[in-house]
Amino acid sequence: GAGVSQSPSNKVTEKGKDVELRCDPISGHTALYWYRQSLGQGLEFLIYFQGNSAPDKSGLPSDRFSAERTGGSVSTLTIQRTQQEDSAVYLCASSSGQGAGGYTFGSGTRLTVV
Amino acid sequence: GENVEQHPSTLSVQEGDSAVIKCTYSDSASNYFPWYKQELGKRPQLIIDIRSNVGEKKDQRIAVTLNKTAKHFSLHITETQPEDSAVYFCAATGGTSYGKLTFGQGTILTVHP
């Protein structure tokens, strides 16, 4: 596609429920990243997929968070048993690979846990 | 892993003045340094970047300088305009974190008309 697409744009969920956030990267981009941005804060790295390599999960804050990338394209970030502190904007980005340059970000999913 | 520190956290200037934001990084193997601008409620967008084989890069009113010896890089905006008001993030990658950008904490720039 023309850009990185994320859905839903907004999600309100009850504490304890599971949520799935979707990212559709730019066609042909081999690298995909998930970041989290809490209100007024910086960009916190969560997970990074590069081609067929094992993902770098070093930023996932707890085992309630997981992500997968099917067919080297679309990625889903899953948060189980959501907590209020999970409320944030979840940003996905893609790039054409290591050393290729900067990311293109999606518009993000604003997650609110009530 | 890489660690990026960004200063100042907030910066207020008058229209027409210059603005400078500075970042330091920890991994001497880092070799790519982009800057992103994020307007309120919008996605971060790449505005300029520099690689370690270059000391300075300029694009109209914005420029970035890199000092690899000191491990710091800076964003310079000249003749600031109100539409430059946004949050600016620096980032670094390379070495052990190759491919993964580590971001600074951001600078809120306000340009007063």
How would you explain this protein's 3D organization?
- The complex is a heterodimer of chains A (114) and B (113).
- Chain A has 114 residues and is an all-beta fold.
- Chain A has no helices and 10 strands.
- In chain A, the strands form 2 sheets. In chain A, strands 2, 4, 5, 8, 9 and 10 form a 6-stranded mixed sheet that branches.
- Helix content of chain B is 0%, strand content 58%.
- Chain B is mainly β and 113 residues long.
- Chain B is built from no helices and 11 strands.
- The radius of gyration of chain B is 13 Å and the shape is globular.
- In chain B, the strands form 2 sheets. In chain B, strands 2, 4, 5, 9, 10 and 11 form a 6-stranded mixed sheet that branches. In chain B, strands 1-3-8-7-6 form a 5-stranded antiparallel sheet, with no helix packed on it.
- Chain B starts with a strand and ends with a strand.
- Chain B has strands at 4-7, 10-14, 19-25, 30-38, 45-51, 56-59, 62-67, 72-77, 86-94, 102-103, 107-112.
- The A-B interface holds A 31, 33, 35, 41-43, 45, 48, 50, 56, 58, 91, 95, 97-99, 101-108 and B 1, 32, 34, 36, 42-46, 49, 89, 91, 98-106.
